[in-house]
Amino acid sequence: MINHHLSDETLWAYVTGSLPAGHALLVSCHLELCKACQGRLAEAEALAGALLQTSEQLNTSDELFERLLLRVESEKPSRSLSCISRPKPRQGVPSDLWGVLGQGYSGIKWKVVGPGIRQFVLPVESSEGEKARLLKLSPGYMTPEHSHHGSEMTLVLKGSFSDETGRYKVGDVQEADDLVHHQPVADTEEDCICLAVTDAPLAFKGLLPKLLQPFFGI
Amino acid sequence: MQLQGNDGGSRNYLSSQELSVLLQSFGKTRSKEVFRQLFIFFAPRLKNYFLKGGASLELADELIQETFVIIWRKAELYDERKASASTWIYTIARNLRIDHFRKERRYLYKDDRFFSKELVVDETQFESHHQAQLSERVQKALPLLPAEQSKIIKLAFYEDASHSKIAQYLQLPLGTVKSRMRLALVRLRKLLKGVEP
Ligand SMILES: [Zn+2]
Predict the structure, then answer these.
(1) b or e along A68-82 (b: 16 or more beta carbons within 10 Å of the residue's beta carbon)?
(2) Is this complex's ipTM strictly greater than 0.90?
(3) A104 CB within 8 Å of a chain B CB
């Protein structure tokens, strides 16, 4: 049961294609896991379609349609029209994430970045200084308390964590803004694996976290 | 209405229902005349969409053509229970724009997914009659939004601007941009439910 969903503004950014790549990856992973947000996505897409349908118009030349006809008519008759079914998680890994990792969680070469915290930076090329990583939190360790200059989105993929704002289980999304201070901790016996996307360097509070910051590589 | 704008007085408007019928009919009959009608309706709107998104005139023409090449190939797969014709065509155009401007995102927004046969949503979650009237409702509801809110919704739609770029552009804190967008979408949703068809 998913309790924490994508915000409206994030869904809208996804639908309009204006999310940076890492954020878009996180959104599509959540959508794969969440029926409720699939419904909200359809609604947002319908809104975008309606905006197109009612938008301003600019003249196009007749010649453009003639050229188009030449182009499509010279195409070979189309091969089989493929109907592919919706992607499903593979070994518990959302398919878009699998596409990036090329494997499941067990084969990942984690890097220790602090006590009880390991990370794997995802090879997601992105504009806008965004960074996408998998984080693995071991139970019983506190991540350094931190706040954000930009925003951070987190999707729980395995296990669960808790912080001041609540408890997050598999499929849950946390969208943390500039002003949120939080200190997530894996709250079961199990390691917690999350997809975390940040669009500006995290700002850590306190001296020790400051010392750790270089290790996060952010 | 301002929304219909620049069409030089000639009325080029079809209802969602009519567009849906056109697209389905093209999928079945492959009639060039129907294809042309779809082109007449959508090409001028797509041109506006691509140009505002930063395409040159030449590129906009090219992207319009590419959109229609995909419509030509895939119209048979169109299913009105899944999406209105405008939504279906919007998604094609958006994916082309992303492909063009953001090569890095190729692995997301996959076309094959979009053309998948399964229903994307349970019909209980999103009723198709609601969808059929949505464009008409949006047309009525948008002018009722405060200007700053409709602006922020359209910025993401047209300019391909991320939340942080919009924040930069409007010189507002990121949090303000997000909350304004959230308010606008909540408000719009209420308006869409409340406005009479
Ligand atoms: Zn959800």
Answers:
(1) bbeebeeeeeeeeee
(2) no
(3) no
